Amino acid sequence: MSRSGISRTVIAIYLLTVAGTAIWLSAIFLAPVLAGRGSAGAARLIYDAFSPICHQVPGRCFTFHGHPLAVCGRCLGIYTGFAAGLVLYPFVRGFSKLELPSARVFLLLTLPMAVDGTAGLLGIWPSPILVRFVTGAVWGTVLPFFFLTGLADLFLARRRKVARTLENIRTNNVE
Amino acid sequence: MDKQKPEYLRPALIAGVIAGLLSGLPIISAGNCVCCLWIVGGAAMATKLLAKNTSGILTSGDGAIVGALTGIVAAVVDTIVKIPLQPYNMALARRIFEKVSEFGTEMPAGLDGLLDGSSGFLSPGLFLLGLFVSAAVYAIMGVLGGIIGVSIFGRKKPQTSPPAAPLPPLPGPGDAP
Question: Is the CB of residue A35 less than 8 Å from the CB of residue A123?
Answer without folding.
Answer: no
